[in-house]
């Protein structure tokens, strides 16, 4: 077996796992699959690009700026769009969230055109080991993803705010009865998720390219990972991302690479039909 | 200019058939379909390939397109009957994308991104070429009328009323049993058939079809029509589809008036406008412009 | 009569434009148990929700230890010395017992550790379940977690909505025993009960609600002996 496949799958998983965790978290609060994440990720990529290339900030600083910016936009979307519509059916919200992705994508197109871009970073030769190649950026992505996942775990399990986030997602009414300002916690959750989507945009820009469709192309794999791991189970999302990455790489061996996106769909379909709770989740996906 | 209007109206026709079909599926069964683009592509390529590559007459290839949409609809409904609706949305979106990817990749058959050229047009030999666009508009309008009529008939039939009554209540659906499930699958399949029809009509109108026409955005525009118009109401839907098309196509006029805007900018502005239209409508009129009359669960209606 | 820890006067509330509860006046004395009974849909849950701030009052006053609560949202009422245990969904199913208790102490994190030990002392059965998600507990255990959570801030008055609902007959007895034990610690209790006989036997005071209003009010023992009440609510149960 080719080691490169595992390297690619690992990089893929590092790219997908953080937003899949954030998606799960957001689903817990909003109770519908939010397709706006595609637009958020694209926005993050272009925000970082703007800070990095035209404004000349170093990439880490640009990344931080992009995370803050995306967090802010996701919060705005929550306040202006999703919160006032919380009585709508899940399907209507789904359509609205796709519309939001289309809007954000088009806004990006208006300002940046559809050209493919990249960050201002020196080109380096990839490292080689045992016949596999990995770039410096890919190693950084993996490291960041590990740190992020650990941080999220600690936040959710071992801090007061994280516990409140889970409580509000679980039962907002009871949380209010116990004195939690549920609206504030929800807003905090959206900002946190937004920052993670912004970071994903930067990762995608590093590993793939920066273009308006970058977020949409990642949306289905993110869903697939979240569903595979069990919606509402952020840790499942990590394993889901790994398995998905592996499945995608193996598919490319036998099918044209344009079918890669179909792998996500097929996994989603199989899991939703046969094991809707995913590998670990408990969320109700069936009627 | 009038040629432009005729073409716009013809496109509106395909659009309305798709929207009616969606409203039939969602409005009656409560099962969502985000794979509209896939069904549309299925119809277009079935009729297109049968006529262009296999030399079938249109009188046979178009019905085959309907049959293909019908079968695909039945299959999707059968498989995912019991999924929660937002997740069914993702599965159907996937079905649509997979259909598009197959069309894109199997280019020995479909010509892939090069596009499939289709010569055959209905009643080609009987109509003078300069009158053909107007004739085709009438042809499409005829099918829109038939679709509308059939959808209304199904909605008002006893089974349609029962289905609407139980749409929001699966416990009742379960009690009423297999019969209801069979009807839901049938209705989803019929909707699929109409989408196949719309695809075939489009294929023989444009005479050149390629995968990029069948992006998921098609599904989005149809969904926006239904939601803006008011879900479950066919008249509301005409208003919704009209509004969305007006924004979609009407903004093209700006291109003539404001020549410094390039096509790329125009298409971005168009999509932003339509997206905002949806959000603003839902903020101001949460049930759409012309909502479905409140359906009450009285006993006689359930008994049908 | 001792001083009233909770006093409600002329309370009116409902959902949207529909008024459900009207003209409700009642007093809960410190350290006493008051039991509300009444037919389904009488507005008992709505009354407790209004007192707890989950449903907003249209008119009237709600005073806890003399402080006005009417008009405050649930999150603000929470730390006022009054704690509410809803009829349904009264624990965080995704959180462990331990974490549920911590949520109960949300408003005063500094006291959580000591308060949790106190709750575990009171409900020793919960100790071994500390790491179990509340969603995996039995109905009786969940009810205890819900109680424990409400007791974390050492309230002076506890609002309980049908604590015995959904429990097996054996557990129901234990449940009322628990209510008595909590009360013995000095906590006043206002509870709604379907199980009128046991509820009134446990309580000092009784209230009968019908169609959103108070139909009868008095000492629990009097209500138990009243011909009307036994005919309407106790008949089948004696
Ligand atoms: N969220 C709500 N929105 C609108 N009406 C409601 C709501 N909750 C309850 N009601 C209505 O208010 C009335 C009183 O309900 P409530 O739950 O207070 O009754 P209850 O006395 O607690 O009944 P039960 O013994 O069955 O628990 C009922 O007619 C009910 O339909
Ligand atoms: Mg009640």
Provide an overview of this structure.
- The complex is a heterotrimer of chains A (287), B (304) and C (238).
- Chain A is mainly alpha-helical.
- Chain A has one domain.
- Chain A is built from eleven helices and two strands, in the order ααααββααααααα.
- Chain A has a two-stranded antiparallel sheet.
- The longest helix of chain A has 28 residues, at 3-30.
- The termini of chain A are far apart.
- The relative contact order of chain A is 0.19.
- Chain B is mainly α.
- Chain B has one domain.
- Helix content of chain B is 75%, strand content 1%.
- Chain B has helices spanning 2-29, 36-52, 58-80, 85-105, 107-110, 132-156, 158-167, 170-176, 178-206, 217-229, 234-257, 263-284, 299-303, and strands at residues 116-117, 208-209.
- A two-stranded antiparallel ribbon of chain B has the order 1-2.
- The longest helix of chain B is centred in the middle third of the chain and has 29 residues, at 178-206.
- Chain C is built from nine helices and ten strands.
- In chain C, the strands form two sheets. A six-stranded mixed beta sheet of chain C has the order 6-7-8-3-9-10, sandwiched between helices.
- Chain C has two domains: 4-81 and 156-237, Rossmann fold (3-Layer(aba) Sandwich); 89-154, no CATH class.
- Chain C has helices at 44-52, 74-77, 97-104, 112-122, 139-151, 169-184, 196-202, 220-225, 227-234, and strands at 4-15, 18-29, 33-37, 57-64, 67-68, 82-85, 157-161, 188-192, 205-210, 213-219.
- Chain C is globular and about 45 Å long.
- Chain C has 238 residues and is α/β, with parallel strands linked by helices.
- Chains in contact: A-B, A-C.
- Chains A and B meet through helix 4, helix 9 and helix 11 of A and helix 4, helix 10 and helix 12 of B.
- Bound molecules: adenosine-5'-triphosphate and magnesium ion.
- Magnesium ion binds at residues 44-45, 87, 161 of chain C.
Strand pairing plus helix content of chain A: what structural class?
A: mainly alpha
Name the CATH homologous superfamily of the largest domain in chain C.
Answer: P-loop containing nucleotide triphosphate hydrolases
Distance between the termini of chain A: 42 Å
Low-confidence stretches of chain C: none
Helix content of chain C: 25-40%
Side-by-side strand order of the widest sheet of chain C: 6-7-8-3-9-10
Q: Which strand order does the major sheet of chain A show? A: 1-2
Gross geometry of chain C? globular
Rg measurement of chain C, Å: 17 Å
Average pLDDT of chain C, to the nearest integer? 89
The overall number of domains of chain A is: 1
Strand segment count of chain C: 10
Rg of chain A, rounded, reads 18 Å
Strand content of chain A: under 5%
């Amino acid at each position: 077996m080719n080691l490169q496949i595992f390297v690619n799958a690992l990089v893929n998983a590092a790219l997908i796992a953080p937003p899949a965790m954030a998606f799960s978290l957001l689903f817990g609060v909003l109770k519908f699959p939010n397709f706006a994440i595609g637009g958020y990720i694209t926005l993050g990529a272009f925000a970082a690009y703007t800070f990095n290339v035209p404004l000349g900030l170093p990439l880490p600083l640009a990344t931080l700026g992009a995370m803050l910016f995306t967090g802010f936009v996701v919060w705005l979307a929550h306040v202006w769009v999703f919160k006032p519509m919380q009585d709508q059916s899940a399907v209507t919200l789904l359509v609205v969230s796709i519309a939001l992705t289309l809007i954000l994508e088009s806004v990006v197109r208006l300002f940046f055109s559809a050209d493919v871009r990249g960050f201002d970073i020196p080109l380096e030769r990839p490292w080689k080991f045992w016949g596999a190649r990995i770039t410096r950026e890919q190693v950084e992505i993996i490291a960041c993803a590990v740190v992020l996942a650990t941080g999220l775990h600690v936040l959710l399990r071992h801090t007061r705010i994280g516990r409140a986030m889970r409580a509000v997602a679980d039962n907002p009414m009871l949380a209010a009865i116990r004195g939690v300002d549920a609206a504030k916690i929800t807003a905090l959750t959206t900002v946190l998720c937004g920052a993670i989507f912004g970071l994903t945009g930067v990762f995608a820009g590093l590993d793939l390219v920066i273009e308006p469709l970058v977020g949409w192309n990642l949306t289905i794999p993110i869903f697939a990972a979240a569903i595979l791991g069990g919606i509402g189970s952020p840790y499942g999302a990590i394993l889901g991302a790994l398995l998905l990455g592996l499945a995608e790489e193996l598919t490319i061996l036998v099918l044209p690479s344009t079918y890669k996106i179909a792998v996500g769909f097929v996994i989603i379909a199989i899991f939703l039909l046969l094991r809707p709770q995913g590998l670990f989740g408990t969320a109700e996906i069936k009627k | 200019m009038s040629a432009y209007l005729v073409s716009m109206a013809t496109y509106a026709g395909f659009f309305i058939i798709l929207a009616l079909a969606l409203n039939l599926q969602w409005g009656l069964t409560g099962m969502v379909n985000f794979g509209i683009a896939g069904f549309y592509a299925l119809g277009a390529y079935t009729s297109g390939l049968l006529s262009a590559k296999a030399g079938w007459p249109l009188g046979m290839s178009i019905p085959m397109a309907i049959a293909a949409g019908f079968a695909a609809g039945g299959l999707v409904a059968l498989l995912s009957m019991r999924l929660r609706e937002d997740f069914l949305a993702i599965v159907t979106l996937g079905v649509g994308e997979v259909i598009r990817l197959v069309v894109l990749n199997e280019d020995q058959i479909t010509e892939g991104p090069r596009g499939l050229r289709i010569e055959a047009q209905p009643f080609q030999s009987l109509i003078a070429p300069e009158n053909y666009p107007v004739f085709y508009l009438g042809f499409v309008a005829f099918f829109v009328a038939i679709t509308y009529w059939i959808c209304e008939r199904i909605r008002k039939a006893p089974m349609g009323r029962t289905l609407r009554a139980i749409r929001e209540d699966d416990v009742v659906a379960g009690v009423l049993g297999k019969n209801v499930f069979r009807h839901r699958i049938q209705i989803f399949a019929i909707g699929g058939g109409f989408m196949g029809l719309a695809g075939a009509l489009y294929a023989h109108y444009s005479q050149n079809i390629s995968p990029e026409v069948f992006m998921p955005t098609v599904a989005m525009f149809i969904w926006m029509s239904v939601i803006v118009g008011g879900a479950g109401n066919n008249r509301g839907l005409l208003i919704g589809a009209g509004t969305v098309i007006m924004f979609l196509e009407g903004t093209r006029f700006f291109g003539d008036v404001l020549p410094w805007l390039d096509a790329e900018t125009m298409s971005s502005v168009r999509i932003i406008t339509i997206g905002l239209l949806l959000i603003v409508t839902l903020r101001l009129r949460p049930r759409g412009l012309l909502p479905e009359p409140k359906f009450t669960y009285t006993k006689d209606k359930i008994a049908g | 009569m001792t001083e009233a820890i909770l006093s409600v006067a002329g309370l009116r509330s409902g959902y949207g434009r529909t008024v459900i509860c009207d003209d409700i006046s009642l007093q809960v004395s410190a350290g006493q148990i008051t039991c509300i009974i009444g037919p389904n849909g009488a507005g008992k849950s709505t009354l407790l929700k209004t007192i707890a701030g989950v449903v907003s009052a249209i008119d009237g006053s709600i005073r806890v230890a003399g402080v006005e609560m009417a008009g405050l949202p649930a999150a603000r009422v929470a730390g006022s010395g009054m704690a509410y245990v809803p009829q349904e969904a009264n624990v965080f199913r995704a959180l462990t017992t331990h974490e549920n208790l911590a949520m109960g102490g949300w408003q005063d994190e500094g006291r959580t550790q000591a308060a949790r030990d106190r709750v575990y002392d009171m409900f020793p059965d919960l100790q071994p379940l500390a790491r179990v998600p509340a969603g995996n507990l039995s109905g009786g255990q969940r009810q205890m977690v819900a109680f424990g959570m409400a007791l974390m801030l050492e309230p002076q008055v506890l609002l309980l909505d049908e604590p015995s609902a959904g429990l097996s007959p054996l557990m129901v007895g234990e449940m009322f025993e628990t209510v008595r034990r909590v009360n013995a610690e000095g906590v006043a209790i206002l509870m709604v009960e379907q199980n009128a006989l046991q509820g009134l036997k446990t309580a000092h005071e009784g209230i009968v609600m019908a169609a959103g209003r108070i139909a009868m009010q008095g000492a629990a023992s009097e209500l138990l002996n009243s011909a009307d009440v036994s005919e309407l609510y106790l008949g089948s149960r004696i």
